[in-house]
Amino acid sequence: MEKKEDQQQQEEEQVVNPWEVSAKDGGKIDYDKLIDKFGCQRLDQSFVDRVQRLTSCPPHVFLRRGVFFAHRDLNEILDAYERGDKFYLYTGRGPSSEALHLGHLIPFMFTKYLQDAFKVPLVIQLTDDEKCMWKNLSVEESQRLARENAKDIIACGFDISKTFIFSDFDYVGGAFYKNMVKVAKCVTYNKVVGIFGFTGEDHIGKVSFPPVQAVPSFPSSFPHLFSGKDDLRCLIPCAIDQDPYFRMTRDVAPRIGCHKPALIESLFFPALQGETGKMSASDPNSAIYVTDSAKDIKYKVNKHAFTGGQESIEKHRQYGANLEVDIPIKYLNFFLEDDAELEHIKKEYGAGRMLTGEVKKRLIEVLTELVERHRRARAAVTDEMVDAFMAVRPLPNMFD
Amino acid sequence: MGSSKDQLLTRLKELQIDFSQYEHPVVLTVETQAKYVGNMGGALSKNLFLKDKKHRYYIVSALADTKVDLKVLSQRLGLGKGGLRMAPEEALGEIIQVPLGCVTPFAVVNESARHVSLLLDQGIKTQERCFFHPLSNDMSISLNAHGLDKFLKSIGRDPSYVDLEANPPVGKDQPPDLAAFVPSGSTVLPDLPDKAPSSQDCTGNDVSAGAKSAAVTAKAVKPSGNVQNIKEKPVKGAQPSIPSADAGKFVEELLDKTSTLLLSDISEDSIKQHGGQLGTEVVNNIQKCLREDLKNLATIFKNTAYTEGFYAGTHYQPKRL
């Protein structure tokens, strides 16, 4: 089962928690070690096949390419689904900035696929309170950012008749808060310190935040949606750095009479400058933003993407590219739908027959199309639509 | 034809609006007009007849020395930086039915000018009297703002005055302050050059329409996002507009996308290559390439329609029992 977290990972170890992700010694993140340490399971091909069988839909590119690579209890969710017991999805975003980059979109793109394939409802939490506390934003600013981010999230294509978006500042209270207290009673101060690394200097807002992110995993937190369905299971698609919250939640769940939420977790999206680089809001060249123009994308990929190509054409033809560190290949791995084409590019590029310029060109095409599509969808999202998505309303067709 | 000068003057008298009239030779510019009535105790006005990219028209009536910057005005209306131009001469006769050099706030009395938006300089209110042409350039009449308002109200127009020299910032958090002046329900001229939906409240965000094939937003919606030509700042429409899920436009977009793909798939080469099988090939390709795209469009349509219904539902008035 889960390993007990007695101390925070430090020293020469890699650091992965909701507020910090850094590899050991400026190297790459070791995902095997992470899975081992966190105690989740690897997602293998048999799962991908099973999902395809159950949903009769082609598996999403992120599943096929191992972007979503780890899980907890996914087999239980699938077993229940096969028996006719549905589940609901829960994901979220901490609205710390207005500018979203492609990495931010990944869990949402995947969640949309899950919603469509399994035909299940979805709740999306905007943790404006968390950002207000951690990033020291004003309450108004974090609420404003939450609404702005909601528009980009909606643009990912969620079905309004099956999706409830909520911000903590708006929604916490009532049944949700009752669950928060129930969860909070089950987690000692020492335990949160152990899981999240809080110190005596951290303010009490931070210390009492974790239950807020935990309780959307329980259907009783949403009486307007799931009243009478206390048995409903929850599946949480997220990036693997969110695992600590849900380890805590899974620990508490049986003690308050709820199902443990299942998780399906993704890799981190690399910065343009390479795996070792950090995507940072202050460096616009470290990522592709959804507001970037075609020109921006071309410039960023050409000038800033870290490649595994050799220094000269002769050397490249001789040795081929280093696919391990090549960012264009990694990005194509995320976003190029066609498996055959990707394989071909990898083969030719790895052998040195294809040049970096060609790979970059293809990547620019793919990214531009993606960003364009997102922008168009975003343009169709109005404030009224956001209000509708965020209204506390019944969703009678959520399982259709 | 449109109302004449005499009809207007009669009307003003009927409404008991106090005005003075001065005849003079035909004048085409404010400078020339000044020669005749410049010292008659009334401020001169300059009147602009403008048009935006979506063929909506505006009359801007200002004191002669108020600075009017079309770029700023365009932004304040939510039309982007270069959204306003001087209207072409033909429009003068067609839409507001006055000759050249005769633009005047009184022109909105004509039925054809029903959808022309009127922006009045608040400077007019500060003057005792102000000169305007009464639908003809061989006369100028002076009246005060109160009289002008009375006339406008009598024809169902809501007189509102604006500080035309102001230059408030327009951006994400500051919606264009004059957006309410953009006409809605305008009669759109038939020769729409671009494919962008003739949205009622669309603030001239020319989503790169013609560029790629039918790649436009699915329906007339109030843009709230960042869809823009590359260098423009995003502008948010300020009115509480309710987007409409337009089935016709939606279908057009679906057909456009499919047609584009069909046209690119059926060529001399592909006919040679596939012969009789071309049909099956093309269908497979369409299904593969378009499925996701079309589903996304359909989801946007559904969400918009739902939002319309939601708004209606939350604003409905229960039956009185």
From TrEMBL, chain A:
Q: Which UniProt keywords apply?
A: Aminoacyl-tRNA synthetase, ATP-binding, Cytoplasm, Ligase, Nucleotide-binding, Protein biosynthesis
What's its top-level EC category?
Answer: ligase
Q: This protein's superkingdom?
A: Eukaryota
User: Main location per UniProt?
Assistant: cytoplasm
Query: What are its GO biological-process terms?
Result: post-embryonic development; reproductive structure development; tryptophanyl-tRNA aminoacylation
Subcellular localization, per the record? Answer: Cytoplasm
Name the EC number(s).
6.1.1.2
- Please give the CDD domains that the UniProt record associates with this protein: TrpRS_core (cd00806)
This one is known as Tryptophan--tRNA ligase, cytoplasmic
What organism is recorded for this protein? Herrania umbratica
Automatic annotation (TrEMBL), chain B:
Q: Which gene encodes it?
A: LOC110417179
**Protein name, UniProt field:** Prolyl-tRNA synthetase associated domain-containing protein 1
Name the family the entry cites.
Belongs to the PRORSD1 family.
Q: Which domain of life is it from?
A: Eukaryota
GO MF term (any one): aminoacyl-tRNA deacylase activity
* Domain called YbaK/aminoacyl-tRNA synthetase-associated: residue spans: 24-150
Coiled coil regions, renumbered to chain? none
Check the record and name the CDD domains matching this protein.
PrdX_deacylase (cd04335)
